[in-house]
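In this supplementary section we document a worked example of the pipeline. Step one takes a protein sequence of length 395 as its only input; no multiple sequence alignment statistics are reported here. Step two produces a three-dimensional model, which step three serialises into structure tokens for compact storage. The input and output of this example are shown verbatim.
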Amino acid sequence: MSTATQSLRPLMDRLRRAWRASPMPGFLGWWGGELRDLLPRRWRGWFGSGADWYLLQHIDAQWTLRRNGHGDLLADWDDGVEAAAVEGHARPDALVAALQKVDREDLRLALLLPAAVVLRRTLALPRAARDNLLQVAAFEIDRQTPFNVAQVYYAVRELAEPATGGRLNVELVVVTRVTLDPLLARLRAQGISVDAVDLAMADGRLGVNLLPPEQAPRRSYPRRRLNLLLAGACVLLLVLVLGEWLHNRQAALSQMRSEVESMRGEAQQVAALRQQLQDNAGAAGFLVQRKKNTVSMISLWQEATLRLPDSAWLERFSVDNTGQIGFQGQSPQAAKLLDALKDSRLITDASFQGSIQPDPTTGKERFYLTARVQQPTAGGSKPAASTSTNRTGAP
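The serialised model returned by step three reads:
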């Protein structure tokens, strides 16, 4: 084991413990099982459930093989097969026949030791030692067993039982090298390499690994490579999908912007037309209001005709933009014209300009009279009409 691997091992152990303590492994296992059950029965074998453990035991010169968690024997052979295996460099036929339908990538073999040859001790260690259990256990071997570290293979597992005082309970599992090495040598002689050395517990195993790391088999994982390639393809497809989604969003945004700009131009045109309409309506209203508030020439003519006596006649009648009215004419009694215009609602401020002069030709008085147009109030034209009616109907 290299120095880099040794330095990373505590970190990997910490991550492995955190992963196992999380609910994710159980959830993924349940989810994968549910998805596998949805597949046709003949397809389910293509989707394995991970490592498939098979247990080897050596009892009274007899080797047995069974599946983890099952008590039925799958194969058995005696030590006499060892010599034939050495000569032929092949596994025992019984083992090969029992494992021929098992996926080689998922196949795992564990050598189970009897409880009589394994020493187990329960230790209470500080929680700070959780990241370095193997190193701490190495110092405890001399105290807890009659052997030293060089004489044994050992493993440590954390127990579920809680401990008090900021400590944790662990179990130290120890087997002597003189006990395990001959068994491993016999297996190698039969062409069998194991992935773990554990302790037999009912139909299963304890869950530790006493196999020295340097004797662990080197495995190739083509399925893992395929899974990595598939994962990379999924990531690539995800990136492409996200890129396509962003592209579509950008295209939709650009289209929306162009539509907004087009609508903005149309809205500006509508606003300009509305403003023009308002201006025209305002001008028309102004003209209507001004016409409404302005006395018409016909009304002034009618008022002057009704107010002035029949004996008076005009030579000139003018109205300027300021509402100034000019009367120039002749009358037998020009001075009485002011009294005639006094009660008018349209003509006010009447006065003579200059002096009244007699006309020797007509015998009447020539006058020039100025006045102002008085804008009528609401209903102001009705009294004039009434006056006109009275005047017209007078005897």
